[in-house]
Amino acid sequence: MDFLQANTRVFAEEFDGETVLIDVENGLYFSLAGAAMELWRSFTPAREPEAVVAAMTSSLQGADPQALQDLMAQMQAHGLLVSAPPVDSTTLAPLVFAASHFQAPVLHVFSDLAELIAIDPVHEVDAAGGWPMRPAGFPDVA
Questions:
Q1: Is 118 within a domain?
Q2: Second label for 67, Cα 20 to 30 Å away, from 24, 31, 78, 137?
Q3: 103: left (phi over 0), alpha (psi -120 to 50) or beta
Q4: What are the residues whose beta carbons fall under 8 Å from the beta carbon of 58, sequence distance 6 or more?
Q5: Helix or strand or coil: residue 77?
């Protein structure tokens, strides 16, 4: 069975009913709303995707399993959720959700600040190139 976990290189902050994720490696940032926040939190620690969808479907009134599976696929495509080694499911705490009703999951992807987020302006300095210096091999995300 496949297991997924929240990518440890991605930082998350929740405020005002929204979760913002920042991937410091590629500089992309994301906004999660609705059931997307619950889904993201469910993968810390690693879990089986099917178990998460089943738990959300049984706990959140009106949950749409296909919408959750589609969102997981998007999160994997952006590197927010990554493969993880199997975990003994009997040792995991049951999933508990803050919401009782399903709200459509929303994932927004932003690349407008990617270069600034991924470049370390304190350390990426070059006498000839200036400051901040774009690292060699930095992906073109614009």
A1: no
A2: 24
A3: beta
A4: none
A5: helix
| Structural domain contains residue 23 | yes
The string of pLDDT tens digits covering residues 90-125 is 889 999 988 889 999 999 998 777 666 666 555 555
Give the Cα separation of 116 and 118 in Å (integer): 6
Name, in order, each residue with C-beta under 8 angstroms of 67's C-beta and a sequence gap of 6 or more. Answer: 35, 104, 105
Residue 59 main-chain phi, psi, to 5 deg = -95, -30
Q: What are phi and psi of 4, to 5 degrees?
A: -125, 155
CA atoms within 13 A on the CB side of 135: 16
Residue given tokens 């399903």 in the structure block? 102
- Decide if 139 is inside a domain: no
Q: Give me the phi and psi of 128, to 5 degrees please.
A: -85, -35
Query: Which pair of structure tokens corresponds to residue 88?
Result: 């003994």
Cα dihedral sign for 86, 2, 100, 108? Answer: positive
CATH number, domain containing residue 79: 3.90.930.60
Q: Quote the pTM value.
A: 0.77
